[in-house]
Amino acid sequence: MLRFNSKGFRKTVLATALFASAGLAHSADLEVTVQNLTQGIYFTPILISAHSNDASLFELGETASVELQAMAEGGDISGLATATEALSANNIANPAEGLLGPAMSTTASVTTDEGNDVLSIVAMMLPTNDGFIGLDNWAIPEAPGTYTIYLNAYDAGTEANDEIRGSGAPGEAGLPVPPPLEDVVGNNGVGVTATVANDSVHIHPGNIGDDDATGGVSDVDNTVQRWLNPVAKVTVVVSE
Amino acid sequence: MKRLNKTLYSVSLLAMALALSACSHDDDDNEISEVAPPQPVTYTYQIKVTNLTSGQPASPIAVALHNADMPLWTIGESASDGLALLAESGDNSEFLANTALLATASAEQPTLPGESMEVSVSIEDNAASTLTVAAMLGNTNDAFTGFTAMDLSQLEVGETSTRVSVAYDAGTEENTESAMSVPGPAGGGEGPSEGREAHDFVSMHPGIVSAEGGLSSSVLTSDHRFDNPVLRISVMRME
């Protein structure tokens, strides 16, 4: 009831202010679809969060938070989910209920509370060391309609891109290999690099990979498990 | 959004006013009072593509007008046989032979890196058709580019809509980059291959690995690598 009243008040303010509505808080019903556009990369559980513009899940050029690092290195979105919920965000956690395979889509709905007027999306990309898809504080439009956004691949800058089997735990080297990827990730690579060239969040330079599934420098397949941006398509339907 | 609609509305009012004044002027010069039968309205679009890549010739540009509800490819779905042939060999004949297409056209020559090519296509009495433009990236196994089911209904005569296209992978041939399988000048191979030996869904293209990049079967070099976007495509409505 409180929300309804305050929404009615907001509409009055909007009508008075005519078109000077940018940035005003409002609630909305959103249907969000995330499609994996890649040929051979999997997305780990996706976090879709409508939150206040005062917060953000990641910032290009800045050091990753420990919560972002856990998501980017191991696909663990619980830290980001908890942190955003503490800020009264409206979240959709893990809409695909596990991995979102190449070219697959997942759709979920959320009603946003007033003040949660930007949308962020993250999910780790496998097989990578700390690569993730990212949408950073996209302003949710007030006008009902269907909006399309293309996402780039980012590197959290927290782990060396050695591209060999290892751990998904924050701070531990190597890529996690959950069971569905067991047969598509190679073995016995010696490692592409042991250093982090840029320790802030940046556009991912891409996988190198190799054509040797049982050795070489990388456990990544160089013809399939690579990508060019964009890597994901987000479709947002605003009704309300 | 409301403001945009208003602007469009006043633009169409202006267009109507201009059209009306043109008509009355004609009437002054012309005393014939017979009512002419309605003339078919022809919509002609000129498509200009520019190849933005370092070393990927684009196969002869295929252009088609068709209904909006039939995109000629969809990410995550299997490529049609016509698209598979186009993406593996650059031969767009089967792609354009689709009987559901309302009008088609093709360039006669490939569009080389850095060069531009123009193709026109016309249709009568159909403002609602959508446009597909497609070409293979020749020095690949099955990469193609373009866009499909582009809405032209808002394009006025003389207006141009420009966009850039990304590289897709038809998913019908493994990306071996071998001389035998790459039909472009870098390979000189056959191009089309029987069946669907890859994962058989359309996706974004992962890019060229090249021989230096560590793909031992590759005949390609760093010159053939590309990044998005790969083509600039301008559509101008001529009439």
Can you put this structure into words, describing what you see?
The complex is a heterodimer of chains A (240) and B (239). Chain A has 240 residues and is α+β, with helices and mostly antiparallel strands. Chain A has one domain (24-240): Sandwich (Immunoglobulin-like), CATH 2.60.40. In chain A, 14% of the residues lie in helices and 28% in strands. Chain A contains 3 helices and 10 strands. Chain A has helices at 2-17, 66-74, 78-85; strands at residues 28-36, 42-43, 47-51, 90-93, 105-112, 118-126, 131-139, 145-155, 202-203, 232-239. In chain A, strands 1, 2, 3, 4, 5, 6, 7, 8, 9 and 10 form a 10-stranded antiparallel β-sheet that branches. In chain A, α2 packs antiparallel against α3 (78-85). Chain B has a single domain, classed as Immunoglobulin-like (Sandwich). Chain B has 3 helices and 10 strands; from the N terminus they run αββααββββββββ. Chain B has a 6-stranded antiparallel β-sheet with strand order 3-2-5-6-8-9, with helices on one face. Chain B has a 4-stranded antiparallel β-sheet with strand order 4-1-10-7, with no helix packed on it. The interface between A and B is medium-sized, with 30 and 30 residues. Chain A: This is Spondin domain-containing protein.
Give the count of helical stretches of chain B.
3
Percent range for helical residues of chain A?
Answer: 10-25%
**CATH uppermost class of chain B:** Mainly Beta
Q: Would you identify the CATH architecture of chain B?
A: Sandwich
- Per the CATH scheme, the topology name of chain A is Immunoglobulin-like
The largest sheet of chain B, given as strand count, sense and whether it forms a barrel, is: 6 strands, antiparallel
CATH first level of chain A: Mainly Beta
Please compute the radius of gyration of chain B using only Cα atoms: 22 Å
Q: Beta fraction of the residues of chain B?
A: 25-35%
Q: Please estimate the helix content of chain B.
A: 10-25%
Which class of secondary structure composition applies to the elements of chain B? alpha+beta
Overall pLDDT level of chain A: 90
Class inferred from helices and paired strands of chain A: alpha+beta
User: For the largest beta sheet of chain B, what order do the strands appear in spatially?
Assistant: 3-2-5-6-8-9
- Described by the principal axes of the CA atoms, the overall outline of chain A is globular
Largest sheet of chain A: 10 strands, antiparallel
Domain module tally of chain A: 1
Q: Tally of extended strands of chain B? A: 10
CATH architecture of chain A: Sandwich
